[in-house]
Fold tRNA pseudouridine synthase.
Amino acid sequence: MTDDQSQPLISEISKHSLDPRAESPQRRSKIAKVNDDNIAVEVVEEEEQKESVTRPMNPNPRLQRYLIAIEYIGTRFAGAQQQTNCRTVVGVLEEAFQKFVGQPVSIFCSSRTDAGVHALSNVCHVDVERISKRKPGEVKNGGDIMVIDIRRVPADFHARYKAQERTYFYRLLSGPEWASSFEKDRAWHVPESLDLPAMQKACNVLVGRHDFSSFRAAACQANSPIRTLEELNVTEVVSTPYFPSISERLRSNSVMEDPTVSLGSDTDHSHTSLTSNEGKSDGTNGEACQDFGLRRKHRCFVVTARARSFLYHQVRLLVGVLKAVGAGDLTVPDVKRILEAKSITAASPMAPACGLYLGHVKYDLPPDS
């Protein structure tokens, strides 16, 4: 955190009752530009800043704009954007800031996540009038939303339109066992075994600049389906929450006794914890089964998607196709066919919101004021 972020941000975020969820499509963007080859140029939502950024600056010298990074569990939110009679991320933040400054404020998010979608780091901006010696960093955090970073920015800096890149993560759990209670609403559990190499090959088809009409929800209002997907990959990671297995604890003890003993790579550890049935006994001769009550770990995959902007539901539709490839329902050539069809009807069912996380929003930030 920067120096002015060292002071903690607003009054405790109050808990709201759970309200029905609703998804809000993206706002209509400007008409797509066309280059010399008559190919639609990717519509960047930042073009809308003429409507929101160029408004006259408030002459009040006590008004300061802050950029705020927040994390939240999206399960009990009806989305990020303000909605009537719904509990939303912006609604909770605006209520908290109003209690802090004593007057209404407007908060603008960089990314308007849907109901049930989580954020490791979403970014907003807010204008706060310094009417007391209290700092906007004095907001206490709690519940299912938390301010994780804050920075002063110029009055014309817009959290949404100044964003250069957005990164999303999607968590998949693979295995026939029921998903753990600790993973409820935090990942998409699929009973099938997923083929990681096949999914990675499918990513190679989708990454780059394409017409993503097949991965665009019907409610999307963007005028152009052209997007540049800078990164799309699938990685197998250790399932969480993670606790050391018997063999790992034994290896750790061996290292303490003999530093020359190697624990091996992290990959070896995750493989052991995910696939082994160590400590099992057949229970014969009256012996107790040592693995009774121990849950077998699922395989955990994370899909990473990175681009300047995304179409409405694009990431979840991409994950739906990748999962179908991993499960053997589609082939890599099928993915190319779906992309070229340029129709949402060609795509696989969309992945649920619960596994999606907004991971990071990238900016070219000005020097700290």
Observations:
- Confidence is low (pLDDT under 50) at residues 1-57, 265-281.
